[in-house]
Amino acid sequence: MNAYIAAGCGDDNMVNQDDDDYFFRNGFTNLDCCQTLRSHYSQYCTESDMMRPENLLLITGVMLLCEFAKTVVRKRDVKFLPEAAVCILVGTFCGLVSLFVYEGFSVDEMSFNAELFLNILLPPIIFEAALSVNKREFIRRRFPIFMFAIFGTIISTFITGFMVYYITGAAKVDGLPILDSLVYGALISSIDPVAILSVLSSLGMTETDTIFILVFGESLLNDGVAITMFNALVGKYAGGGDVTSTTKDEILGALADFLIVGFGSMAIGLATGVLALVYFYVLHGFLRPVMEVGSFFLWALVPYYICDIVGWSGIVGIVVMGFFMDVFIAAPKGGPIRWDITDDYVQFDDGDSTNGTPETPDRDAMMQTNGKMQKSMRTVYLSTFEVTRPLFGSKRVRLSPEADRHVRFVAHLMSCVAENSIFVYLGLFLFSNKYDWDILYIVIGIASCILARAVMVVLVSWVVWHIHILRQRFWYSDAGKDGLTCIQDTSCVYGNREIRISRTARRLKEKNTQLVLVMAGLRGAISLCLVENVPIYNGVTGEGSNYKPTLKAMTSASIMFTTFVFGGGAYYILRGLGIQSDRELNERTVLAGSQELSTRFERTDSSSLVDKDVSEPLGPHQ
């Protein structure tokens, strides 16, 4: 109120002295007064002052120290310290030094803005992941990836949220409200499994292995789902934060909004991709490699910001754009990829393999025994998509090989710098006054997100496995009197023919694979970005969260725990479990299945011979 009077907006004798007065918020029109107040706020009340030379020098020095520390850790081959953990430790060390060396120093003076996270640092991370994922293997395992990324993220959000709500309510009188609990569940459901992927690579796995692509694919798509749910829940703060009185119509409306946001963002990504194709087609031969690279990244950002403008998911838009540009515009990666789709063999994943094409039942025989099944085989080319040839000559829309190499290098560079910045920020701002380090809340938050992840992985794995088996039984159970008999979860027997079970379904049935997926639930950059975007409670409007400092502490603690414990212990745990690549798994399971199959056939043949020997001598006596 003193600033209001000092700006010449009124005096003590005015009737509406209360800042919460309706007239003060809705009927005030003194523009000179407003500009004076705004200038005063900008000078004395802004949250950050990032652009001061001293702060920029500190940030530059911290980033250089971070790169130095990462190099030392990599050169020494320190397995228990992931790169993200190194950045957190560097940030923590620099924060401690600054507090003791510089009197009066406060990290809150250089606090990052939430918009900086979401609009500047986040897009390069997501786009690089979308650009680098193996599209062929992603398509092969599309069903389990979508199950984990969409339904799994939704399940994790609500399990985490309700666990936090009920446990904190039982442990403390002032437990976390239901809306804040669900917001925490949404933001902490985003995963960042870079450390696990690095460990899997060190154990001999490649991007074509089932476990690797499941972890990578889920992390790529689950960010968009987590952010969409986060935005939907944060919007509830505008209604006073009451979600207990949610009606059926509101639930259906939220589901409709979720679908609209998802498919609308995908449409924007595809439409922008087509415009980028036209751009590179028209300017083919005129763009130098450096201009190609610049244009490539500028086009990549377009759908992200368009989606943000219309209130949709920029993450989904930039992921679709990354897929589209890698398939159509980036330099070709080789020959076409063959994807066989049959009506009688459910390919949730593999279809190929290091062991050759899986055996499938004879189609003519199946047509005779089951009229429902149709004989069909289609071949889809995923890398070059031949459908583009009538529209665009493939060479006219492709980047030059030189530009393509630079695109991938620059994408990886920007992603690494952005991720390093976020993890350094996490370590540096552990000493901020804007965190409420309540041990009970922190323990509950960490335990809830880990348990929710474990429940989700087991549940989704069970669903994927049984859907696959039920689908196979649907096609084969009435084809013969013996039906479908499964052997060691690796193959099924129909008559005298072996039917291979999906490699992904077999993998997800294994407890070791489920443990890997649970450990892959490291929390990282996205969670930290989202918690910074939680609105602080506004006493005038009555909107926002009173528990943002607590949510920030819970999120930071969860990120550090999963990074240091899961990321640091992953190499030793996975090596001790004997996690195998797909090639090793196939060699073991095919051998075991073949041995049991041969034994079963031998018993059948022996039974036939016995019957024949018994029946033949009876003929002459008849």
TrEMBL record:
Gene3D superfamilies: 6.10.140.1330. GO terms for molecular function: potassium:proton antiporter activity; sodium:proton antiporter activity. It is found in: Membrane. The keyword Membrane applies. Its main location: membrane. Signal peptide: none annotated. One of its GO terms (cellular component) is plasma membrane. Pfam families: Na_H_Exchanger (PF00999). Coiled coil: none annotated. Residues 75-325, 410-569 form the Cation/H+ exchanger transmembrane domain. The chain crosses the membrane at residues 80-102, 114-133, 145-167, 182-200, 212-234, 254-282, 289-306, 312-331, 409-433, 439-465, 515-537, 557-574. One of its GO terms (biological process) is sodium ion import across plasma membrane. It comes from the Eukaryota. Keywords: Ion transport, Membrane, Sodium, Sodium transport, Transmembrane, Transmembrane helix, Transport. It is a multi-pass membrane protein. Residues 601-622 are annotated as: Disordered. Residues 601-615 have a biased composition (Basic and acidic residues). PANTHER family: SODIUM/HYDROGEN EXCHANGER (PTHR10110), SODIUM_HYDROGEN EXCHANGER (PTHR10110:SF187). This is Cation/H+ exchanger transmembrane domain-containing protein. It comes from Odontella aurita.
